[in-house]
Amino acid sequence: MTTHPHAGEEARRITEAGTVLRTRVGSGVHGTALAGQDDRDEVGLCLEPRRFATGAARVRTPTGRLVPFEQYEFHTAWERPRGLREPSGPGDLDVVVYGARKWARLALAGNPAVLLPLWVPGTEVVRVTEAGEGLRRESWRFASRAAGRRFLGHLRAQRQALTGERRPGAARRARSASPTDHAPKPATHALRLGLQGLELLRTGRVTLPVPEPDLTELRAVRRGERSLAQVLARLDDLEADLERESRTADLPQDADRAWLDGWLHRSHEEFWARTDAA
């Protein structure tokens, strides 16, 4: 039995009853997966029962503690002997379903991972209700300069994971590294975040999978066919472009909070009307 605080049975039941959108995300959707080397990632959101959204109800964790409901997580890797310490590997399933209010906070902040379900192709949608379709139809309301800055922040985090730039001399050593001296997956993530952040700032949406010719280049990076120096040079350009576009893009500073508040209120009221009558 997993002891993760968001993997309890009550959290699972809330998720099953209230999910409005759940889609595949990750390398397979971006188009950068390599055969036999990737897990399957899914992200979604669910409407919470009335007692959790308007009251102080809590859910019980697998260890018996009571905590507020925020999300449910399931990772097949946790079923192996090392439990929570077991990293996901090829063929594993990783699922995170957020409560709608937490999802909304993350989406308003421009979090790339929670925004992607708004743009995945229909073939990658695992579950969707009318309320979820409403979110996807109005995905343009989440495009903002703030979201562009969040993509930039995630790019920089991936870059640091790639190069260890916080360590003295790491950047200098990175630029002289050979093609096999870097981790291709973080390099691909960093470049992909830069490309998608720019597309969002320039068009108000993200295309999935990543369009050509960028997809071919990302796949070459993922296969380890580009040196770290080449990757870092491209990241320099993407960072500069993202910084500029985050200041000048023809987008609002922030996502449409008023519209999302209305969606949350309306969707919860309709959900409660159905479930209270059942």
Average pLDDT score: 92
**Spatial strand sequence of the major β-sheet:** 5-6-2-1-7
Report the major sheet.
Answer: 5 strands, mixed
Instruction: Tell me what portion of residues adopts beta-strand conformation.
Output: 5-15%
Helix content: 40-55%
Structural class by secondary-structure content:
alpha+beta
Describe the model.
With 278 residues, this protein is α+β, with helices and mostly antiparallel strands. Helices cover 49% and strands 12% of the residues. The chain has helices spanning 9-18, 27-30, 50-53, 100-108, 112-115, 130-137, 145-163, 170-175, 184-203, 214-222, 228-248, 257-277, and strands at residues 19-25, 40-46, 59-60, 66-67, 71-75, 93-99, 125-128. A five-stranded mixed β-sheet has the order 5-6-2-1-7. Strands 3-4 form a two-stranded antiparallel ribbon. α7 (145-163) packs antiparallel against α9 and α9 (184-203) runs antiparallel to α10. The two termini are 32 Å apart.
